[in-house]
Write a structure and sequence with these properties.
Helices cover 50% and strands 5% of the residues. By secondary structure, the chain is mainly α. The protein has a three-stranded antiparallel β-sheet with strand order 3-4-5. The protein has a three-stranded antiparallel β-sheet with strand order 6-7-8. Strands 11-12-13 form a three-stranded antiparallel β-sheet, with no helix packed on it. GO terms for molecular function: amino acid transmembrane transporter activity; calcium ion binding; mannosyl-oligosaccharide 1,2-alpha-mannosidase activity. Its main location: membrane. Residues 658-1150 form the Amino acid permease/ SLC12A domain.
Length: 1208
């Protein structure tokens, strides 16, 4: 064996000869080549094709999710020219094309895992999307940690808490994940991490830390971050670390400070490092276990970090101390290169004879070959030690199982001369990839075979690597969850077979629970935990890169699916390790291991989503805020927008009762209590009922579509996000801004109306006083968070519902003659003055007003992102809200039509849309001679107006925050504090309420009419976009080969209902344009009201889009034009928003094949178990279990209740 000769200072890292020998790390093929070198294209990815020098920390190569050349990737719509077809035909064709009617459908087998790519072939695009899923898992994990346990060393995702290992924390998770953040280009998250490092991290702590763990995670993480930030500054670029900036050497300075303290561990009598170090006292501490011995694996896995630090600082002592450890280990003269797992720091001698490649032994063997490669093959002694150890493994530890003859690496707990234990830790699965790496020298197998140095020994090593990889994969296949146990035992003959014995394991793993191969495996209950370890996925990556065999990449993807399916924590909690991975649902540990972020998702060997790898090179993509420059133009990143809205930081605290009342509170207000009077005058009682019933049908279809989308994608922004995802980002931009502005302007209007309502009791008090009170109350309620808002709306809506029910009962009594003033009324007013007024135009006028009376019903979809259990609460809320509102409106308005004639003079003189004097409800009560109830109804109107104002802040702030998350609004609007409140968006929306101080003007609402007119049709456009998004969603679902059974909630109206809703919304718009351009001509409402009109007052047209429900006095053509633009100015505004964004970002309609059906989608395989009302964690189960749970629940219900559940 070669002697240990420590090089002068350190090896030459700039020697030109390194270029050839760095082939392990450099890209050796062009961008269009198939997998070649194990790290083919790795350096090209981050250095533009130039060969880069060896990254010195943890030998972690690089791979990135590919950037996109542009949004969508689809072609533009080019309609064919038809000589005989007019504009109408073109519009219809365009609409059909937009909804995917002309797209080709792909046939194929659909499965619940289709969205993971199963059955989708092995196309390049499919693998690129899979790689993106890995990046998303990283983002979700990091965001959960950032929200619930920021700065903590431990993160417990289920309990949403963290814990420090030492008093001030070590940055255990943050530092270990730095290079992952860089390589995945997560700039904003990296900036937050750097800020924590600069301000909060300190090593000056009187605490004992583990030498090994602190070195590989803290020191290694900092050095890796320094290497990437200096060598590849374009990755997650941050100005603070640029040359000459204050933070240029932040990582290196922190690393050097820590290393100086850790060097105290080497100050043992022998030079073998102590197990622990006191950071403040610079003092090594002997192990308190194992008779004071240190772990062999731990002491021999410090070399990469300290040698690289020597290179960076020029301090040779770092190199010397680390290298001496290897010399001491070798001087012990271990038999056949196999070292016991303990070594005394005091004497430098081994302790015991326990030989294993699992815990406490693994890293020693792994880093032999990696040190050889790290030092540019300048120290061949490490290669010699590796091959000596590998032959020892063959001789003493390799054997075969029975009956299926799998290859395993066992243990010799009592020495090489004693019995072989068939125990194999998951940690041992680093061996297949490491063996293949050593056998090929980092080249592909094909390239290595072509070298003259290839021998039969290399051939045998590759065969051993394949067999061990097969066994490691079997450890995953054996478990119920598909996630390997920490330790697996195997059945072997009493006399273990030698490595040279003939053997042939089954090529495939039969899924039959009674399959023969399962007899070879044995997992004991105490060993069934899964700690999210990276060893197997790392080896799979090496094996795929080296051999080019697709099965290794497929296995990696199957493994990733299992992690997503069984370790994901509900409500954005990230992922947890498991205490029992062999049962479904699994038992969780409520702990996210730091190496889940640093290694498993990033692989210690390849980084950034190479869990599934890629056969081609691609540029790193930028996540950022959702949009960036590309090719000197502007680019909208729809994937990032979807990801951000899916991983919202909003607090999920809304329950089902909150959701139902939020929708009711947002839509039962002055539109019902007051503006219905103007509608009654315009069309008569029959038109009133028919129009509202018509709109109820339209909204039934619309809300069913929204319910399906909101359950599948309970994302922030809801409808605007759906337009961005399924239609066109430009449309999502225009819809979102128009909807947010609609509610923002609605706020001061409601506050003014509330202050005017108070005039009923306090006529001579300045309205500004009440504006201040109402605005302050609304702001305070919303600052209490979504839970406070939900509770407030629950109370407000309860009051309104009680008032409506009370009026319905009272109205029935009045109509049948329960009060002497009127006697029996019956249908008298349907005969005189009649059931209809102003013919079809009167009906259309009500048609428009009725639509706006329902504005706010869609808020339940917006609230889905903050619901505790959207899968359960949203469908119920959607159905019940619709029926309740429809029945409340239809029944109460039927009674209004029976009790108040449409020509009643009091219906015509409203000062504002909330003027109780013109409320048909108040008129009906007063006509019966009841004196106290009008005051009560006025109070109800006040509460209704206040409730709508409260909803205005909620609707606008959540939409603005979601727009910011998508990159369609200033980023600061997306700020969400630790309590899950979009604080800045709430404050900005509340600032619009200051316009309420216009209340003391003579005509305060008219000042706001033009502001509200800019967004007046927003609800109609929003409802239409919901229907259109649902149509496109269903079409994309079919084109991508998905099954409807994978959706946990389906629209009862189906796609046909969405088409009906879309058409009806279109008819409402047409009716609106018609009645605005050609309003009902000014006529006297009633001869008895001649005195009122003799003073020059004219018939006023209801103009609900402007929000005042009273209208514009029509005196001539100028007033007609004024009225038209007041009601229709929203249309050009929306078109300008849409066209401007489309031109600026060059967005395209999202192609059906590229619609993102995965990001943020709630899985159908989640069942929420409850034990006597106590909330328990949600476990992922199979679809059959979910369906069985539903069927069991329904079977226990009587028929009437099942019908009720279907309808409500």
């Amino acid at each position: 064996m070669s002697s240990f000769s420590i090089p002068k200072n350190v090896p030459s890292f700039s020697n030109p000869q390194r270029q050839y020998e760095d082939r392990l790390w450099a890209a050796a093929t062009n961008r269009n080549s198939k997998p070649g070198n194990i790290l083919s294209g790795v350096q090209d990815i981050i250095s533009g094709g130039n060969r880069a020098s060896l990254p010195m920390y943890k030998d972690k190569p690089y791979m990135y999710p590919p950037g996109r050349s542009g949004y969508g990737g689809g072609g533009r719509f080019r309609p064919r020219r038809k000589r005989t077809l007019g504009l109408l035909f073109l519009v219809v064709v365009a609409l059909l094309w937009w909804t995917g009617m002309f797209s080709e459908q792909q046939e194929g087998v659909t499965t619940g895992w289709r969205w993971w790519g199963k059955g989708a072939g092995k196309s390049k695009a499919n693998w690129l999307k899979r790689r993106e899923r890995v990046v998303e898992a990283m983002e979700l994990s990091w965001d959960a940690y950032e929200r619930y346990a920021w700065g903590m060393d431990e993160f417990h995702p289920e309990s949403k808490s963290g814990k420090q290992m030492v008093s001030k924390g070590l940055g255990w998770i943050i530092i270990d994940s730095l290079d992952t953040l860089m390589l995945m280009n997560l700039t904003s998250r990296l900036s937050h991490a750097r800020e924590w490092l600069a301000k909060d991290l300190t090593w000056e702590q009187d605490e004992y830390v583990n030498t090994f763990e602190t070195t590989i995670r803290m020191l290694g993480g900092l050095l890796s971050a320094h290497y990437l930030s200096t060598t590849f500054p374009e990755l997650a670029p941050i100005a603070d670390d640029d040359p000459g900036k204050p933070g240029e050497d932040l990582y290196l300075e922190k690393a050097k400070d820590l290393a100086d303290r850790l060097m105290a561990a080497f100050d043992s009598p022998s030079g073998i490092p102590y197990a622990s170090v006191n950071l403040k006292e610079f003092k090594g501490i002997i192990s308190h276990a194992d008779m004071g011995a240190s772990s062999t694996a731990e002491t021999t896995t410090l070399q990469l970090e300290f040698k690289y630090l020597a290179k960076l600082t020029g301090e040779k002592d770092f190199w010397d101390k680390a290298e001496k450890v290897m010399q001491l280990v070798d001087d012990n003269g271990a038999e056949d290169g196999l070292v016991p797992i303990f070594i005394f720091a005091t004497t430098g001698k081994f302790h015991g004879e326990n030989i294993r490649l699992g815990s406490r032994g693994d890293s020693y063997y792994e880093y032999l070959i990696k040190q050889y490669l790290q030092t540019n093959k300048k120290e061949p002694i490490y290669e010699e030690m590796w091959y000596e150890a590998l032959e020892g493994v063959r001789k003493h530890l390799v054997t075969y199982t029975e009956p299926s003859q799998f290859t395993i690496i066992g243990e010799r707990p009592n020495g090489l001369k004693k019995e072989l234990s068939p125990k194999m830790d998951h940690l041992v699965c680093f061996m297949p990839g490491t063996i293949a790496l050593a056998a090929t020298g980092g080249l592909t197998e094909k390239e290595a075979r072509g070298l003259p140095t290839w021998t039969d020994k290399n051939e045998a090593d590759m065969q051993l690597a394949r067999e061990l990889m097969h066994t490691c994969w079997g450890m995953y296949k054996y478990m119920a969850t598909g996630l390997a146990a920490e330790i697996t035992y195997f059945n072997i003959p009493k006399e273990p077979l030698p490595a040279s014995a003939p053997h042939q394991a089954p090529a495939e793993f039969d899924p039959d629970p009674e399959a023969e191969w399962r007899k070879d495996f044995d997992v004991k209950p105490q060993d069934s935990h899964n700690l999210q370890r990276p060893e197997t996925v790392e080896s799979l990556f090496y094996m795929w890169r080296i051999t080019g065999e697709e099965k290794y990449r497929d296995w990696g993807w199957e493994m990733f699916k299992s992690f997503m399916n069984y370790t994901a924590v509900e409500e954005g909690g990230g992922f947890t390790s498991l205490s029992n991975a062999n049962i479904i649902p699994p038992r969780t540990r409520d702990n996210m291991e730091s190496f889940w972020l640093a290694e498993t998702l990033n692989f210690r060997s390849n980084r950034s989503s190479t869990l599934v790898g890629s056969g081609s090179n691609a540029s790193p993509g930028s996540r950022g805020g959702g949009q960036k420059e590309r090719h000197a133009g502007h680019y909208f990143d729809v994937r990032a927008a979807n990801l951000n809205t899916a991983n919202t930081q909003l607090s999920r605290e809304l329950k089902g009762r909150h959701l139902q009342m939020i929708a009711i509170g947002g839509s039962i207000g002055a539109g019902l209590f007051v503006a219905s009077g103007a509608s009654l005058t315009a069309g008569g009682p029959a038109s009133l009922i028919l129009a509202y019933a018509f709109i109820a049908v339209m909204l039934y279809c619309t809300m069913q579509a929204l319910g399906e989308l909101a359950v599948a994608f309970p994302v922030a922004g809801s409808f605007s996000a759906y337009s961005t995802r399924f239609l066109d980002p430009a449309l999502g931009f225009s819809m979102g801004w128009n909807y947010a502005l609609q509610w923002a302007v609605c706020l001061p209007l409601e506050i003014i109306a509330a202050s005017m309502t108070v005039d009923y009791w306090k006529e001579h008090v300045s309205r500004s006083v009440f504006v201040t009170v109402f605005l302050a109350c609304i702001v305070v309620i919303n600052l209490f968070g979504v839970k406070g808002y939900g509770e407030a709306e629950f109370v407000f809506s309860t009051v309104k519902i009680i008032a409506i029910i009370g009026f319905i009962l009272l109205g029935i009594v009045i109509n049948i003659g329960g009060f002497p003033n009127e006697g029996y009324i019956g249908g008298k007013y349907w005969r005189d003055p009649g059931a209809f007024n102003n013919g079809f135009k009167g009906f259309c006028t009500i048609f428009v007003t009725a639509a706006f009376a329902f504005t706010g019903i869609e808020l339940v979809g917006l609230a889905a992102a903050e619901a505790v259990h959207p899968r359960k609460s949203i469908p119920k809320a959607i159905k019940q809200v619709f029926w309740r509102i429809s029945l409340f409106y239809i029944i109460s308005l039927t009674l209004i039509g029976l009790l108040v004639p449409y020509n009643h003079p009091d219906l015509l003189g409203a000062e504002s849309f909330a003027d109780a004097s013109s409320s048909p409800f108040v008129i009906a009560i007063e006509s019966a001679g009841i004196s106290i109830l009008p005051g009560i109804m006025n109070a109800v109107i006040l509460i209704a107006v206040f409730s709508v104002g409260n909803s205005a802040v909620f609707g606008s702030s959540r939409t603005l925050a979601a727009m910011a998350d998508q990159g369609q609004a200033p980023k600061f609007l997306g700020y969400v504090d630790r309590r899950g409140r979009p604080l800045i968006a709430i404050l900005i929306t509340s600032a619009f309420g200051l316009l309420g101080y216009l209340a003391d003007m003579q005509h305060p609402t008219r000042v706001l009419d033009w502001l509200l007119a800019l967004t007046g049709l927003s609800s109609i456009f929003t409802w239409a976009s919901i229907c259109l998004a649902h149509i496109r969603f269903r079409k994309a679902w079919a084109v991508q080969g998905r099954s409807l059974s994978d959706l946990s909630c389906l629209s009862q109206a189906g796609v046909a209902g969405s088409w009906i809703g879309l058409v009806l919304n279109g008819l409402v718009m047409l009716a609106h344009f018609w009645t605005a351009a050609w309003p009902i001509p000014p006529t006297l409402a009633d001869p008895n009201a001649a005195e009122y009109f003799a003073n020059g007052h004219y018939r006023e047209v209801p103009t609900a889009p402007t929000g005042n429900g009273v209208g514009v006095e029509i005196r001539g053509a100028g007033d007609v034009a004024h009225n038209f633009f007041l009601q229709c100015s929203c249309v050009p505004v929306i078109l300008v928003f849409w066209a401007g964004y489309k031109v600026w970002y060059r967005t395209k309609v999202v192609r059906l094949e590229e619609v993102d059906l995965d990001t943020g989608r709630r899985r159908t395989d989640v069942v929420y178990f409850n034990d006597h009302g106590r909330s328990l964690p949600a476990f992922a189960v199979g679809k059959r279990d979910l369906e069985w749970e539903r069927e069991r629940e329904l079977r226990g219900m009587p028929r009437w209740k099942r019908i009720y559940r279907f309808l409500c």
